[in-house]
Amino acid sequence: MMNAQSNSLTTQNIGQTTLPGFHNPVFDATAVFRTVLEAMSHPGTVIETPLTCESPRKLNSSAASILLALTDMDTTVWLSPKTECSDVADYLRFHTGCSLTNNADHCDFAIINGQEDPDLVTSLPIGTAEYPDRSATLIITVDHFNAELKAVLSGPGIKTTSNLSPAPLNSKFWGWMKANRNTFPCGIDIIFASPTHICALPRSSEMDI
User: H-helix or E-strand containing 101?
Assistant: First the structure.
């Protein structure tokens, strides 16, 4: 993945925050990483986040935990307009050392609020036919997984079908996700994060609304 140092918001700034990160960094990061792997292996299954952490405003605990576990000095993160603020930027720089970028097309991880327009992330890296793994992972913050509108998922990791119902979610999201699925094996992998649970929607999943 190209590391757009010239596009970094504060590449050299370590950042300062009064919020703690993981209590036991190695064990906590491992626990969150395993939870993310389990979620990715079972699309549509809502899984409890194994721990809580104090998170800055505009991020919930699960989203913060995922970023603490998966990002480091070698990763670049893009923050959407509703998640970008100095509290989030300082928190991530201080605890992970990651670079922050203004350009969504040069990032390893992106985070948006579920109510935001998915047009914001149409330029995220989707990988190439030779290297489909060189795509971004999108984290979407939501409040819960009990929306009236449910997507019926099928595909790898799902025995028959699985229902996915994150909320709140922008009305254009599912149309964007279907377009994303059409680029498979390229495409974006998604992790929905409520304050206490996560649920994954990998690019390999088929969906009906």
Answer: strand 99-101
pLDDT per position as a tens digit, 98-116 = 999 999 999 999 999 999 9
- What is the structure's pLDDT at 13? 61
> What is the spatial distance between Cα 159 and Cα 165, in angstroms, rounded to a whole number?
18
Quote the pLDDT of residue 17. Answer: 80
Domains (ranges, CATH) in the chain? 25-208 (3.40.50.11310)
Q: What is the DSSP letter of 120?
A: G
Q: Are 121 and 112 in contact (CB under 8 A)?
A: yes
Full-model pTM: 0.91
- Which pLDDT value is given to residue 14? 62
Pairing of strands 99-101, 76-79: parallel
Condensed to tens digits (0 to 9), the pLDDT of residues 155-172 reads: 999 999 999 999 999 999
> Which parts of the chain are beta strand (E)?
47-48, 76-79, 99-101, 109-113, 137-141, 151-154, 162-164, 189-193, 197-201, 206-208
Count other C-beta atoms under 10 Å from residue 5's C-beta. Answer: 12
Intra-chain end-to-end CA distance of the chain, in Å: 33
Closest CA to 101 of 80, 121, 78, 85: 78
Q: How far apart are CA 169 and CA 165, in angstroms?
A: 9
Contacts of 12 (CB under 8 A, 6+ apart): none
